[in-house]
Each structure stands twice: as structure tokens, then as C-alpha cells.
Amino acid sequence: DIDITWQYRPTGSTPPFTFMFQRLSQGPPPVTITLSAPATLGGVTTIDLSSPGDPGAGYLCGIALGNTPGITLSDLRVVPLNFDDLLIYTLTPGNPVLYNPVGLLSGAGTASPVLSVPNLPILLGATFWSAFVVADPLNVTGVGTISPSLAITIN
Predict the structure, then answer these.
(1) With contact defined as beta carbons under 8 Å apart, do 141 and 73 qualify?
(2) Which of 71, 106, 109, 150 falls between 20 and 30 A from 30, CA-CA?
(3) Rounded distance, CA 116 to CA 134, Å?
């Protein structure tokens, strides 16, 4: 944010000057999705979600096999996850791979679903994609903020 203050002197005005103030804002900090640590076979890490403009809002986080073409919403915005079996599985509450895929963001607009990577050697080197959306009951789609996608490569 930038605050600008200046003095304005309109012709023939009383008093002879007026202080003006304007705040220029670039909006809330960006939405981010990151891993707290590398995803390793048999390991556990968190997917750290941050949407500072949405404190306390509901979120939905998933993992898919790809991120293009993504899921196009009725308002033509795109969720950068493909609608596939892995996405359906990781969005299912109680699944053993992604704990807390659905929840509420904290007062700071953050959450950390837990990713538990199965100890399956076939997963080594595979890349999956994660993203999240934030609920907005005032939007016709029910979706407000959409995160970018995060590539998760299994080490």
C-alpha cells in the first residue's frame, strides 16, 4: 500500500489550502500453495495453503494427476486440477492420503492439510498436482478464490 498526501490550493478558497489523502492499494497478498517439506515415499508433509483475503472461509484442497485443461466453472474461471479418480479420492473425507482436504482457513487465511505418501516404489519420480478453492456463498459457482496449482514430485 502507498499513502499519498498533498496540499491543494483551489483558487479563491477559504481556507487557502486543503490537505488531500489517497491510499493506493494493490489488494490482498497473493494466494499461495506450498509444501512444508519434500514429498517422499512413505513420508508425511503438509500442503500449506494461504489466502490472506479469506480469513475463516471454507476451503477444499485436492490432488490430481494433471492440471490442464483443469475444471472450468460456469463463470469461466478454471480450477487448475483435472477431474480424475485421484482428485475424487483425495477430496473424500477420511482418505488415507490427504488428511483434512475440507476445512476452514484460520484467521490469517491459512490451513495445512497433511499429505501422507504411500510407500509404493512405483510412485518414485511421479508428479501430481494440488490446488485449493475457497468457498464464496455469494458467487453463483460457490467458489471464490482459486489457488494456482502446485507440482508435487515424489522423491
Answers:
(1) yes
(2) 71
(3) 23
Cell numbers found for residue 7: 496540499
Are the C-beta atoms of residues 107 and 55 closer than 8 Å to each other?
yes
Of residues 72, 50, 75, 71, the one with CA closest to residue 134: 50
C-alpha to C-alpha distance for 147 and 60, rounded to whole angstroms: 11
DSSP summary character for residue 147: P
Closest C-alpha among 48, 61, 63, 70 to residue 117 = 63
The tens-digit pLDDT sequence of the chain (155 residues) is 555 555 555 666 555 555 555 656 667 789 999 999 999 999 999 999 999 999 999 999 999 999 999 999 999 999 999 999 999 999 998 999 999 999 999 999 999 999 999 999 999 999 999 999 999 999 999 999 999 999 999 99
